[in-house]
Amino acid sequence: MAMRKPAQPTTSRSRAWRWFHRFGSPAYFYFFAGRWAPRFGHLAVAFFLAGLYFGLVVAPPDYQMGDSYRIIFIHVPSAWMSMFIYVVMAVSAGIGLVWRIKLSHAVARSCAPVGAAFTFCALVTGALWGKPTWGTYWIWDARLTSELVLLFLYVGYMALLAALDDWKTGSRAGAVLALVGLVNIPIIHYSVEWWNTLHQGATITKLGRPSIDIRMLVPLLIMFAAVNFYFLAAMLNRVRCELLDQERRTRWVQEVVNG
Amino acid sequence: MMRASRKRRLVIAGVLVTGVSVAVLLTLLALRENINLFYSPSQVVAGEVVEGSYFRIGGMVVDGSVRRNPDDLQVSFDLTDTAETVTVHYSGILPDLFREGQGIVALGRLEDHGFRADQVLAKHDENYMPPEVSEALKAANRQPYAPAATGGGS
Fold first, then answer.
1. Do B128 and A211 touch (CB under 8 A)?
2. What is the mean pLDDT of chain A?
3. Engineering a disulfide at A51: which of A26, A222, A253, B75 sits with its beta carbon 3.0 to 4.6 angstroms away?
């Protein structure tokens, strides 16, 4: 057991708590992420290829939109990830803020660029689909506007981190912003129910009668798996970089760098 | 261990999230109607729209109500929310998904003889199915899908 502080009062603490502490140590997590990031990356590539094949080649066209509906295989997983990653980022930043855990801040900082990329992707694919379907690229309805606000939140979070030279100060300030922005997530999700919008309601999370043909749903679920694996791979790689940078004066980093 | 300060930070974070949520909730409640993208025909008939204002109206195109002028791009149709109906006049190219029974959103203003639209957008529903399934549903005449394509097919 490579515990960094063996003198910790572990008597009253469970094994799970000790494991949690070890897992949260930057050195341990660096090597853990190094093992798992490539695996998730390979899974992501495999699922992307399968999802795109089934989505673009095998799945039948839509009765109204023809082939243009196929953009949902990119758009819906991207939109879902844009919200999911924000929640991961905000919760992680909040844990870092309260418990002063360096790894949590590193995870939060690493989520932001990935989430911003998915948000951008959702907005662009939505606009490209909107023109042939609705007749316009953009409309200021509640769903589109709140998703755009999400992009600004990601960009604002990253800008704040970059503006503050000190890593810890930046992480804490960013955590406050991330927590404030958390309120936007339920607004995005329920915008199509609370207000009337041009954007249609939920298809998959809707209970009751089926809204999507099974041959279209399967590729969509494969793409969901793909984007999740991609997120894990990209995020873990970024966490490794953050940890190396933050722990550069410690012995384990010196050992990693000098071989 | 800094138990007390940790607890204090947790409370601050909790108050922050709750406070912002309440503030945003109150703002959204105050703005309630204004965030809606369009008015329904019922709201328009009830006079909820300020006279002479430029606004959006949304609803379903009534079956068999589309009248095209053979000489130009003039088209008019009835828009309903099942309770009230408003006649919409438009001059221009309609989106591909425009058809009878389909939801649309039109931007324009009220005139004496109905709603004069400058822009018509098609509203897509959340249903995705292949053409043969749609055909089968139509043939069986028991469409569980709300705004199905009853007018011309594609």
1. yes
2. 90
3. A222
Distance CA B43, CA A102 (A): 55
Q: How many residues does chain B have?
A: 154
Among chain A residues, the shortest Cα distance to B146 is held by A211
Torsion angle, alpha carbons of A243, A246, A248, A251, to 10: -70
Q: What's the CA gap between B136 and B120, in Å, rounded?
A: 30
Place of tokens 């959204």: B28
* Nearest beta carbon to residue A66 from set B120, B133, B154: B154
Pairing of strands B114-122, B103-111: antiparallel
DSSP sequence for B6-38? HHHHHHHHHHHHHHHHHHHHHHHHHHHHHH-S-
- Among A69, A183, A202, select the one facing B128 at the smallest CB separation: A69
Q: Which residue in B60, B119, B124 has the most chain A C-beta atoms within 10 A of its own C-beta, making it the best mutation to test that interface?
A: B124
ipTM of the complex: 0.79
B131 touches chain A (CB under 8 A): yes
Per-residue pLDDT of A34-76, as tens digits, reads 999 999 999 999 999 999 999 999 999 888 888 889 999 999 9
The answer to whether B31 faces chain A, any CB pair under 8 Å, is no
The number of C-alpha atoms within 13 Å of A247 and in the hemisphere containing its C-beta is: 23
CA dist B97 to B21, B102, B122, Å?
Answer: 38, 8, 6
A–B interface: beta-carbon pairs under 8 A: 120
B153 confidence band (pLDDT: 50, 70, 90): very low
Q: Which two tokens stand for residue B6?
A: 């940790």
Residue B101 has pLDDT above 90, yes or no: no
* Ordered DSSP codes for B55-115: EEEEEEEPTT--EE-SSSSEEEEEEE-SS-EEEEEEESPPPTT--TT-EEEEEEEEETTEE
B134 to A66: CB separation less than 8 angstroms, yes or no? no
> Distance between CA A147 and CA A137 in Å, rounded?
15
Rounded Cα distance, B78 and B67, in Å: 9
Distance from CA of A256 to the nearest CA of B (A): 31
Token pair for B55: 């606004």
Q: Would you call B11 an interface residue with chain A, using a CB distance cutoff of 8 Å? A: no
* pLDDT score, position A11: 52
